[in-house]
Amino acid sequence: MEELANYILKFGDLNQQQLDLILSKVQPLKLKKNEFLCQAGKIPKYLGFVTQGVFRYNYYNNHGQDITRYFIDEHNFVSDYPKFMDQSVSTEYIQAVTDCSILAFTKSDWDEIGTIIVGWELISGKIEKHCLTESLERRSPLVSEDATARYLSFLKNFPLILNRVPLSFVASYLGITQQSLSRIRKNIQ
Predict the structure, then answer these.
(1) Rounded CA separation 171/168 (Å)
(2) Range of the domain at 80
């Protein structure tokens, strides 16, 4: 809980009573490896703060291939946030790649925090902007770089993830085959 409080305090000043209110709204959830926090075709139930584990965002392209779009690890929020906020149907999956623990907010609890805490919209907006900016900064090099450079960017942006996720997910994220990833890794070492 302290990790979540410290994370939120980076984006705005809150007193102890306000922090206590926020923390009273979370429910600890555990997901086993391969379970889904969110599934395409369903409305996201939770906005979570990851305390342990790695999640991946993925979808299936029109050829039925499983494409990894992003990874989230500890001390970050995990959710299909726009769909969570609108309570509309998600178009992607959020899967636990490892056993995971999160501190989860329901939509009604997240909304209640906003109605009680003056200035919460500003703080939550800053958190959302930070998450989006971080996601874009991690994804944008993948568009213009060759496969080796994309892999090196992955190592820089996700230093604690490589040994925790299957290489097939990493290859999918980088937009290359697993064989190409193996060659790149061999050439770098």
Answers:
(1) 5
(2) 2-117
C-alpha angle 81-38-127 in degrees, rounded to nearest 5: 25
Q: Provide the token pair at 56.
A: 């991946």
pTM of the model as a whole: 0.89
Domain for residue 55, yes or no? yes
The Cβ-side half-sphere exposure at 22, using a 13 Å CA radius, reads 25
- Is 84 a domain residue? yes
DSSP three-state, residue 31: strand
Distances from the Cα of 114 to the Cαs of 9, 88, 121, in angstroms?
15, 20, 6
**Count of structural domains, the chain:** 1
Task: Give pLDDT, residue 142.
Answer: 60
Please state, in angstroms and rounded to a whole number, the distance separating the CA atoms of residues 59 and 23: 32
Q: Which of 68, 28, 67 is nearest to 48 (CA)?
A: 28
Q: Which amino acid is at 140?
A: S
Q: How far apart are CA 71 and CA 83, in angstroms?
A: 18
Q: How far apart are CA 22 and CA 47, in angstroms?
A: 13
How far apart are alpha carbons 131 and 77 in whole angstroms?
Answer: 8
d(CA 139, CA 135) in angstroms, rounded, equals: 6
Ranges of the chain whose pLDDT falls below 70: 138-144
Neighbouring C-alpha atoms within 13 Å toward the C-beta of 49 = 20
